[in-house]
Amino acid sequence: VNISLIARNTGQKVLANQDTVRVFGFATSLSVQPNVPGPTIIAQEGDSVHIDVWNVSQGAPHTIHLHGLDVDQQNDGVPHLSFDIPHMQHGYYHFKAPHAGTYLYHCHVASTIHVQAGMYGLIIIKPTNGGNTTWNGGYDYIQEKSFMLSEIDTNWHTDSVLLHDHDTLVAIHILEILDYKPQFFLINGFS
After folding, report:
1. Beta-sheet pairing, 101-106 with 65-67
2. What is the largest CA-CA distance in the chain?
3. Fewest CB within a 10 Å sphere: which of 36, 63, 117, 183?
């Protein structure tokens, strides 16, 4: 399975009250705004998965942390333990899809801010039996629905928070920001 994601810092999200906030995110082409959440990655248990992340984010480094997947450290996406992807560079992640289930991917650079900004998405690993079961030998289901629950604090979607300096030589970024008080809740990106 080959997946291409483009990390961008130039998205916009229209909220339930019709206000628009700035977001970061992942897109599948330069002509598409990054969506919140990012594209869902789907593979079958045992598949070889190859993710090419191209960072066109105007200077900020990014990663893809494969949250919950059992992958080696080099492909885990924690920048100080593996690598980050500088502006206008590609980063490549390779793994064999482990256990069937639903997982999360997100940027792990200044992760509190970058996840809030919209740099996350679902990973769904299907069982090898090809049927409608939760895993090989698991529970049967009739219909599959995926729900990604998240929230937005509009005060965190300002240039002063989102465009903070990034020092790629340190593992922890220190930035003073407002207390987190989300005003909007999202289900699959809808507020």
Report:
1. antiparallel
2. 50
3. 183
Q: Which candidate, 49, 51, 116, places its Cα nearest to that of 77?
A: 51
Task: List, in order, residues 6 or more apart from 98 with CB less than 8 Å away.
Answer: 45, 69, 70, 71, 125
Query: How would you list the strands of the sheet with 41-44, edge to edge?
Result: 41-44, 120-126, 101-106, 65-67
Do 23 and 117 touch, CB atoms closer than 8 A?
Answer: yes
Tokens of 5: 């994601």
Beta bridge mates, 102: 124
Cβ–Cβ < 8 Å for 51, 3: yes
What's the pTM value of the predicted model, to 2 decimals?
A: 0.91
> What is the Cα–Cα distance from 36 to 88, expressed in whole angstroms?
22
